[in-house]
User: Fold this.
Amino acid sequence: MTADDRQVVRTRYAPSPTGPQHIGGIRSALFGWLFARRHGGQFILRIEDTDQKRFVPGSVEMIQDAFDWLGMDIDEGPEQGGPFGPYIQSQRLELYQTWAHWLVEQGRAYKCFATAEELAQMRAAGQGYDRRYRDLDPADVKRLEAAGKDYVIRFKMPLQGKTSGQDMIRGEVTFDNEQLQDAVLLKSDGFPTYHLAHIVDDHHMEISHITRAVEWLPSFPLHLKIWEALGWRKPQFAHLPVLLNPNGKGKLSKRKGRFAAADGASVPVLVHEFIGAGYLPAAVLNFLTNIGWNFGEEREVFSMSEASARFDLRDVNPANSAYPIAKLDWLNSQYIQSADVDFLASSLKPALQGAGYKVDEARLRRVAPILQVRLKTLNDVIAMAGFFFEDWDCFQPPAAKILFQKKMDDRGTKQVLEAAIPIIEGLADFSHESQYAAFKQLAKEIGFKNGQVFGTLRAAVTGQRVSPPTFETMEILGKAESIRRIKLARDALA
RNA sequence: GGCCCCUUCGUCUAGCGGCCUAGGAUGCCACCCUUUCAAGGUGGAGACACGGGUUCGAGUCCCGUAGGGGCUACCA
Assistant:
């Protein structure tokens, strides 16, 4: 047993509060969360608000709401607290300052007095910061400080040699130290940069595995050197692949509609957009887990508890992937199909209400079962079954062109509708089975095909050409309402 | 430009040297079922980027090329 095996697994998601929660961040968080759950460890939420300019009020709530909706439980964080708090970096400033200055004292970092203008010049000249303050005479440092000059603290990156580290997903990665810059650790406003802050926190919060997106891979050697300079035991690292736009070009954009999917439609990327589009949290989680990781057994549909029982960061595919959003519709329909009726009904309710329908819950529970195999998203209930919730005053008689079935005209249609009324009235048993038998008989008698008769009734009663099965629909609508609608349709004909 | 990472059907993936005439899923097409739409069933088209090695044997290992992605801030 190695030391690592004994360690408690603690992973974290450390977003910047810059707005609504993006699905890419959730995907990264999800892998860390799954890994923690797999090992019975903890998953921590830490807010990295060290850039005051980018802070967007309300972000922390939006992030927490996203996790709540998805059912990804957080063990420690701003809302839930924990033994290593506070979990918001702006409340831990002193800690970072202490360690930044400690590094200066150790000779591993230095104060840099370069002004914005100087920096701009260096950038214009080609390469980045030229380390002009790295070996400044201590007396000069003192003089500049006494003169009240602003400074940042920069890390002294080794000037030559190589740095390599182990990435759980892709193995060893090696970098030339010459390529790295003397990164800023502490900004002139006293706030730390990500480079310093995350290391100080991950150490103090006893994070065992750092899971973060691949864009951090280039600064991996910098971080490794900082960990070493601080003399702390390093955690393990996993640089996760990222989501690319559906066409495979570029990182998945921050905002909906910024790029076109193959069919020109925009796709959901913000968590609240998934909610608004009518997706189930379990389906979204399942969808995300299938990208870059595979459940095995050639199984695509599984719960998070099943996934976490076998999840391993080492099995994550290192390649970035195009956002396979089309699969979410399929997955969502799978979840809807296998959903418990009460759960489905209560999930459907907000969609209906959002569209302005008054929802009769008892009726919704009866409608839900016949909708299950027909919905891709919760919102589809509006187009498919909104007519169930239009009451006596609202239901509009369908136009003739909707009523007319193949090879049927005004007369035939009217004939079917007229005949239907006494049939329905005479049915002692109004189940869909007996309706089916009765109308099949009618079709035979008047010489129309089943589809023509059934279709006419469907259109009359639902006002739609596409709907749930006609007789099950009428069964739920009830005799009186069915007849009323059929009469409305009949009267709408010339 | 420099550095780093990545590369299996359109897309998401399985494959960790022989089990691969490359499997699953989605999407697409066809047929069956069928009162519409779905669902379901059956079948079909569809991939190891390219070039060199290593090896008895390579989708699997190595190198190069090409392509893609990322980083290159007092942003994360």
In short: The longest strand of chain A covers residues 162-167. Chain A has 21 helices and eleven strands. The radius of gyration of chain A is 32 Å.
